[in-house]
Design a protein that fits this description.
Number of strands of chain A: 18
CATH class of chain B: Mainly Alpha
Shape of chain A: elongated
Low-confidence stretches of chain B: none
Strand content of chain A: 15-25%
Number of helices of chain A: 8
CATH class of the largest domain in chain A: Alpha Beta
Distance between the termini of chain B: 6 Å
Radius of gyration of chain B: 12 Å
CATH topology of the largest domain in chain A: Chloramphenicol Acetyltransferase
CATH superfamily of chain B: ACP-like
Largest interface: A-B, 17 and 20 residues
CATH architecture of the largest domain in chain A: 2-Layer Sandwich
Distance between the termini of chain A: 78 Å
Largest sheet of chain B: none
Radius of gyration of chain A: 27 Å
Strand order of the largest sheet of chain A: 11-18-17-16-14-15
Number of helices of chain B: 5
CATH superfamily of the largest domain in chain A: Chloramphenicol acetyltransferase-like domain
Structural class of chain B: mainly alpha
Structural class of chain A: alpha+beta
Helix content of chain B: 55-70%
CATH architecture of chain B: Orthogonal Bundle
Number of domains of chain B: 1
Mean pLDDT of chain A: 83
Order of helices and strands of chain B: HHHHH
Order of helices and strands of chain A: EEEEEEEEEHEHHHEHHEEEEHEEEH
Strand content of chain B: under 5%
Helix content of chain A: 25-40%
Low-confidence stretches of chain A: 88-95, 141-164
CATH topology of chain B: Non-ribosomal Peptide Synthetase Peptidyl Carrier Protein, Chain A
Oligomer: heterodimer
Amino acid sequence: MPTPLYTPRVNNNDDTVRLVKVLVERGDAVRAGDVVAEVETDKANFTVESEQDGYVLAVAQALNETINVGSVLLWLGATPDEPAPAPSSNGPTPAARTGAQPTLKAAQLLAKHGLSASEVPAAGDRLTVRDIEAYVATRTSPTEPVASADTAPVPVLPRAESRGSTPSAAGAIRALTPEERGMLRTVVWQREEAVPGYVEVQYDAAPWERIAADFQKAEKLLLNPLLALMAYRLVRVAAQQERINATIVGDALYVYSSVNLGFTIQSDRTLYLAVIQNAAAMSCREFVSRLGDVQRGALGHRLRSADLTGATVSFSSMARWNVSRHVPVLPPFTSLMIAHAATFNGIGTLGATYDHRVLTGVDALSAVRDISVPEGIS
Amino acid sequence: MTPRTFDRAEAAREIHAKVVELARARGIRVTGFRDNEVIPETNLLDSAGIMELIVWYETRFDLAIEQADLTIENFGTVNAMVDYLARA
């Protein structure tokens, strides 16, 4: 009995892939694990392996075509002379139906067009972006023949538009708030551009606490400056080691000309990465004061755009919530973000997320160790 | 500065209540907190909590505080915060 080999999902964001290579042909014997094809998304190429021993009965998709995840890629049989199913029965091509659950991207598109899932026919089990594009095309082109749902043309979408996560559990879509959208754009950078790694050390917190207490007393500060001083230590380290204060652009290292310190601040439900521009040019006292200003600005939701852009290295602490470890997401175009966590029994934890394209784990570890010691802070 | 006219007792009550509210948000039950206690030394609020208190204070009393003014002397106690308000 013919067995389908389905087009695999290679990541959560691509509902389609392009078939770029077929390594077998009708009659070939394959074994489970043999690579039979290659597909690509807009980010990478992936191989497709046979899931069983057998013979190739037919290749169901055309080379270089964009094909749906989950469609039949090829048919396998126990013998080479079994008949393959006719193309018309090639995989899930059910009659269009309405009321199918939309994918996340499709739901967003529905909202954009003011449509509901119940009025748009779906070609498959889920309502996809393609279904909606096809439906909208028929509604907005009255001079063209109105195709039936079964034969509606399926436009080839720009790849960026064909992305979309497809949660299986039922849910409802709402638009992102500006703050949520900002955070999404920030973290997506790491997924698509950086190669993040994480290292961590434990350290004796007492020297830092003494330094902070002395500084607070000497400057008559209302607030304990511990985090500000540790962030300033990062600034000094980054000023001395250019690769920490750098990123990758194309095939080259882009070394920043100033150290702009990003510092995470949670205000209500908004997470800011406030930025102290040209921090290495400041004295310790100036830096602590400036960071206090932007912290207050963030808590009052009144930061300027210059306070939120251009970070070249960053510092984040979750000690306030007694977190013993956290792995921060690298802000865009940075290679190192220090993660400060709570101190337990005098032992603190400092970690770092780093861009492995720029820094090795040893580089990051060396920076973390430097920051764990309060040298040059006064 | 031109001293502003305000109800000292009411201002103290509001600031006191805000300290208690922020402490409770940290899961701390507040008992016997006095207006002349140095807030950072009570451990009712951490640095971020004190910062929240200051931002609330600026908004509530329509003040813009210079970073250099954020000292224990000016804002260390509820009473000090009321005094600062009187001078603002």
